[in-house]
């Protein structure tokens, strides 16, 4: 058994090397140059790259890369910080997933392409409409302040399957029990409550996976 204290973790199965995920907001709000540069930043992730290399990859001039980078920063998609000691610009992609999920939660594909100036359909009963908080917002307020895109999609699928009120009730039930056992939090637990129909075993949903932990 090794006694080394530090670990370097590498996930050789990480699918990011094959594809990227972009918020729908980017498609709706950014112009072609902004969208292209934003997608490049999302694909590259953590790296060091010259402006010339970025320009070659995005098929832009160096001047257009600089201009587009400034536009993305002005619109809140990235931040740009000069690091004079290293003669480097630190470009950070802003995490806007929560804003994206809240904006598009409950919309059909047709509604997702709706102009932001069009009135919303006020007959819907899903979260995010008629003043009701989205399920993602209730989850982050009651259980975890941070949530992954995958978990956001799972919550949306649960809402489709069981309805808004059932998922909200499950989140509140999980929140009430998390103090007794910190394992009883997370989307898997919410899913077990919804699917279990109220059946319990040792105080937890009967179909909750044994041994699951954070």
What is the N-to-C order of secondary-structure elements (H for helix, E for strand)? HHHHEEHHHHHHEE
Provide a count of the helices: 10
Helix content: 40-55%
Mean pLDDT: 76
Q: Main beta sheet, described?
A: 2 strands, antiparallel
- Poorly predicted regions are 114-125, 209-214
Order of adjacent strands in the largest pleated sheet? 1-2
Termini separation comes to 24 Å
Q: List the quaternary state of the chains.
A: single chain
Estimate the strand proportion: 5-15%
Question: Any idea what the shape is?
Answer: globular
Number of strands: 4
- If you compute it from the alpha carbons, what radius of gyration comes out, rounded to the nearest whole angstrom? 21 Å
Structural class: mainly alpha
Description:
This protein is mainly α and 214 residues long. 46% of the residues lie in helices and 7% in strands. It contains ten helices and four strands. Strands 1-2 form a two-stranded antiparallel ribbon. Strand 1 and strand 2 form a beta hairpin. Helix 3 (51-58) packs across helix 4. The longest helix has 14 residues, at 149-162. It is globular. The two termini are 24 Å apart. Residues 114-125 and 209-214 have low confidence and may be disordered.
List the keywords.
46% helix; two-stranded antiparallel ribbon; 214 residues; two-stranded antiparallel sheet; 4 strands
Give the gist of this structure.
By secondary structure, the protein is mainly alpha-helical. The protein is 46% helix and 7% strand.
List the helices and strands and how they pair.
Blueprint lengths: L23 H6 L2 H13 L6 H8 L3 H13 L3 E6 L4 E6 L3 H8 L4 H4 L22 H8 L6 H14 L1 H14 L9 H10 L3 E2 L2 E2 L9
Antiparallel strand pairs: 1-2, 3-4
């Amino acid at each position: 058994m090794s006694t080394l204290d530090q670990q370097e973790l590498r996930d050789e199965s990480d699918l990011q090397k094959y594809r990227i995920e972009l918020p729908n907001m980017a498609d709706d709000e950014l112009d072609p140059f902004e969208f292209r540069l934003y997608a490049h930043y999302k694909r590259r992730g953590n790296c060091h790259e010259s402006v010339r290399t970025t320009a070659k990859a995005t098929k832009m001039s160096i001047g257009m890369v600089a201009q587009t980078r400034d536009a993305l920063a002005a619109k809140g998609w990235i931040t740009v910080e000069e690091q004079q000691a290293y003669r480097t610009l630190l470009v950070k992609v802003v995490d806007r997933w929560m804003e994206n999920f809240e904006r598009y939660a409950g919309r059909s594909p047709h509604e997702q392409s709706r102009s932001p100036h069009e009135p919303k359909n006020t007959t819907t009963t899903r979260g995010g409409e008629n003043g009701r908080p989205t399920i993602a917002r209730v989850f982050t307020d009651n259980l975890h302040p941070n949530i992954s895109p995958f978990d956001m999609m799972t919550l949306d699928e649960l809402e489709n399957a069981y309805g808004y009120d059932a998922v909200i009730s499950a989140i509140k039930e999980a929140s009430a029990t998390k103090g007794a056992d910190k394992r009883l939090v997370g989307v898997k637990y919410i899913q077990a409550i919804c699917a279990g129909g109220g059946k319990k075993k040792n105080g937890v949903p009967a179909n909750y996976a044994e041994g699951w932990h954070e």
